[in-house]
């Protein structure tokens, strides 16, 4: 299997020094709520914007707004909310095409499954390179498989966030190996570091003794994260004055609260919900745990390592590529509560070991998982795809121009479910025709090369 790690091949100089031209980049996501993929997009888009590119982040879920939108706006990134209709929205691809055309987009980057289905064909119609990043595990792997397979045909490069994720994609037939690359996720490391002041403040706010041993986890309370395993291990490893801090919310909360009560952890397991200020929360911990059944490359592990914490995690997905067993923390088999409890107890009883692992983990993260490094890898890939496109040559008229020209057709508007009013404020279906579209009207249909 030919899976490529993007470490500079085919455009290192362009990617590092900045492309010799300004790009219009569209990142298409499901929503801008909290999550690993959304945080990656925030850092990726913001750094690309800081490098001088025009960057637009488009969220297409039926309720797409969320806290990441304001983070992006504060960093100068254009945010567009393009909510889809319930079910399969036949108008969404056309609306994306209109937006790409209005914004002068030169490359489309779709993140995870729903954006792949709608944005990949839209990027093809706009005749620009399309990149698709698979950040983690799909909850609906079978139900929309045919849609993903169809959309994948319009993608120029698929990206997995870890080599195990890449191998899984090929084994399941989701992507072809020749289009597949590996780019590890990165994060803004300036936000994470040991912080004694934040440690004391957060513990005081939560009513936790400054001397207590505190274990924590930051993850959505969903079945795939398997917090039940962590609760069972914590029942064995937590001392009487210790605390388990669970940051996040989700559909499993009520069941997990009941399990904590059943295990005698009601006073020691703190469910604090979704919170801002994760770096400060991490500073309050002595160790970090993640017990997922499946993962891509979880930012939570990288953040904990960057904060100088020893990490115990299940050996699933891309976790073993980031966490070295016995060096930066411990890996345990998925579902093994006894092994997890034993490793947590080891860290609890050996503060010197825990501190050493925390230092090593921070060093590894600083070296390998910065957002700047991630952006450099993606810009290398973008450059490679754009150079290939230049070598292939551009069509005389883009299909997106033809769609814009056809917007006056009432039949097309009814079919797509769009009105004559602009889908993009000031520049959508009702906007004035571009020079390219006017040129298309003057050409004979036989001369149009699509």
From TrEMBL:
- Quote any Pfam family the record assigns: Glycos_transf_1
Q: PANTHER family, from UniProt?
A: GLYCOSYLTRANSFERASE
What Gene Ontology terms describe what this protein does at the molecular function level? glycosyltransferase activity
Q: Which UniProt keywords apply?
A: Glycosyltransferase, Transferase
- Signal sequence span is none
Q: Does the keyword DNA repair apply?
A: no
Q: Which residues form the Glycosyltransferase subfamily 4-like N-terminal domain?
A: 37-191
Q: Which SUPFAM superfamilies match?
A: UDP-Glycosyltransferase/glycogen phosphorylase
Q: Does the keyword Glycosyltransferase apply?
A: yes
The highest taxon in the source lineage is Bacteria
What is the protein name stated in its UniProt record? Answer: Glycosyltransferase
């Amino acid at each position: 299997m030919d899976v490529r790690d993007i470490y500079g091949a085919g455009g290192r100089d362009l990617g590092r020094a900045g492309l010799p031209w300004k790009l219009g980049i569209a990142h298409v996501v499901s929503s801008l709520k909290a999550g690993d993929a959304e945080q990656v997009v925030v850092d990726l888009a913001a750094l690309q914007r800081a490098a001088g590119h025009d960057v637009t982040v488009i969220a297409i879920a039926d309720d797409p707004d969320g806290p990441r939108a304001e983070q992006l706006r504060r960093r100068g990134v254009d945010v567009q909310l393009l909510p889809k209709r319930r079910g399969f929205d036949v108008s969404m691809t056309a609306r994306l095409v209109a937006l790409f055309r209005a914004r002068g987009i030169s490359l489309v980057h779709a993140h995870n499954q729903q954006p792949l289905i709608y944005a990949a064909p839209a990027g093809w119609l706009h005749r620009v390179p399309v990149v698709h990043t698979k950040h983690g595990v799909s909850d609906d792997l079978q139900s929309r498989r045919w849609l993903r397979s169809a959309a994948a045909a319009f993608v120029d490069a698929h990206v997995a966030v870890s080599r195990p994720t890449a191998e899984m994609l090929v084994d399941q037939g989701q992507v072809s190996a020749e289009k597949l690359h590996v780019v590890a996720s990165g994060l803004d490391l300036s936000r994470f570091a040991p912080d004694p002041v934040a440690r004391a403040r957060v513990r005081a706010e939560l009513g936790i003794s400054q001397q207590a041993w505190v274990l924590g986890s930051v993850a959505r309370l969903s079945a795939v994260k398997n917090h039940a395993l962590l609760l069972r291990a914590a029942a064995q490893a937590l001392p009487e004055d210790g605390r388990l801090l669970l940051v996040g919310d989700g559909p499993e909360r009520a069941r997990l609260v009941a399990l904590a009560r059943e295990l005698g952890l009601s006073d020691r397991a703190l469910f604090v919900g979704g919170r801002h200020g994760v770096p400060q929360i991490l500073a309050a911990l002595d160790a970090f745990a993640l017990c997922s059944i499946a993962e891509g490359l979880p930012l939570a592990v990288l953040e904990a390592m960057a904060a100088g914490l020893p990490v115990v995690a299940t050996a699933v997905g891309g976790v073993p590529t980031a966490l070295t067993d016995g060096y930066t923390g411990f890996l345990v088999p998925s579902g093994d509560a006894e092994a997890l409890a034993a490793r947590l107890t080891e860290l609890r009883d050996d503060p010197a070991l825990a501190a050493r692992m925390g230092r090593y983990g921070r060093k590894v993260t600083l070296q390998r998982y910065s957002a700047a490094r991630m952006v450099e890898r993606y810009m290398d890939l973008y450059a490679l795809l754009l150079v290939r496109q230049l070598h292939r040559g551009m069509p005389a008229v883009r299909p997106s121009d033809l769609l814009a020209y056809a917007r006056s057709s009432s039949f097309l508007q009814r079919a797509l479910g769009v009105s004559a009013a602009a889908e993009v404020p000031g520049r959508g279906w009702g906007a004035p025709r571009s020079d390219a579209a006017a040129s298309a009207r003057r050409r004979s249909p036989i001369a149009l090369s699509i």
